[in-house]
Design a protein that fits this description.
This protein has 272 residues and is α+β, with helices and mostly antiparallel strands. The chain contains 4 helices and 13 strands. The strands form 3 sheets. Strands 2, 3, 5, 6, 7, 8, 10, 11 and 13 form a 9-stranded antiparallel sheet that branches. Strands 1-12 form a two-stranded parallel ribbon. Strand 6 (182-188) and strand 7 form a beta hairpin.
């Protein structure tokens, strides 16, 4: 099944790329644009097939939530939470069925709100930017990427359209551009913890390193398909987001905060 899903995702991106090439070529060469529509249709069909393959088997009981430490400390609030709906981000693909986004909400520094103006903000305007992220359990680093830039925020109404178009091009390239700078920890027993949208150059670990619960591993950023600096966290059953299925989690001492819920995460247990 994983091989089939990977093949479908490769063909999906290839179809989009062919469509874009034909779209540009149509301004230079006279040829039937029907081929462009055919490739576009193939892309949509393949995406639907991929989503069906990523879903759990019909009638299967949901997995038992895995208890781990919270990846942050301090005062935060939740967005796109699996406590409110599954899949939390609208798709089962990329292992994000039970993913959650959290934004920093310190009492002494209000987070800029979504609105019409300004069109974009610098990352330093958001209290989450640069916040320390911690290992949620003992494990081994499976993936570690931090070469992508941290872009300006997309948290205004005009920027929503830009984010949507930008997100499409990122998906055509691959999950790495959607996640931006990211870290995947192998927690053992077929469970992997993924952190996305990390700050460029902030990774403190590299593939193969052993980590302990509560150990600093990176900092929050605004890379990849992100509207503002925030932490995207998920558990999945494979280190490759293309073929991974999401796994439910619960944070020790916090649970799974619902959308808009403000919570305070205490430091994880001491590292011996």
């Amino acid at each position: 099944m994983t091989t089939v899903l990977k093949t479908v995702m490769i063909l999906y991106r290839l179809s989009w790329r062919v469509f874009l090439v034909l779209l540009v070529a149509g301004f230079l060469v006279d040829f039937p644009m029907v081929w462009g529509w055919v490739t576009l249709g193939c892309a949509f069909v393949l995406r639907v097939v991929a989503e069906r393959l990523a879903r759990p088997a019909r009638g299967a009981a949901p997995p038992t939530p895995v208890e781990v430490e919270a990846p942050v400390t301090g005062r935060w609030s939740a967005l796109n939470s699996p406590a409110d709906k599954v899949p939390s981000h609208g798709l089962h693909g990329y292992g994000q069925a039970y993913a959650i986004d959290v934004v920093a909400e310190p009492q002494d520094r209000p987070r800029p709100r979504f609105g019409w103006w300004p069109l974009a903000r610098r990352n330093r305007d958001f209290p989450a930017f640069g916040a320390e992220l911690l290992a949620v359990a003992d494990g081994t680093v499976a993936r570690a990427v931090d070469r992508n830039r941290d872009h300006l925020s997309r948290n205004s109404w005009p920027a929503v359209f830009y984010l949507s178009v930008e997100g499409l091009f990122r998906e055509v390239v691959g999950p790495g551009q959607i996640l931006g700078n990211h870290l995947v920890l192998d927690l053992g027993d077929g469970r992997y913890a993924a952190y996305a949208h990390l700050r460029r150059g902030s990774l403190l670990v590299r593939p193969g390193d052993r980590v302990r619960a509560g150990q600093p591993v990176a900092r929050c950023g605004n890379s990849g398909n992100s509207s503002e600096p925030h932490v995207h966290f998920q558990l999945m059953d494979d280190p490759d987001p293309d073929i991974a299925r999401g796994l439910p989690f619960t944070w020790r001492g916090v649970g799974v905060p619902g959308n808009g819920t403000v919570f305070t995460a205490e430091p994880a247990r001491q590292i011996s």
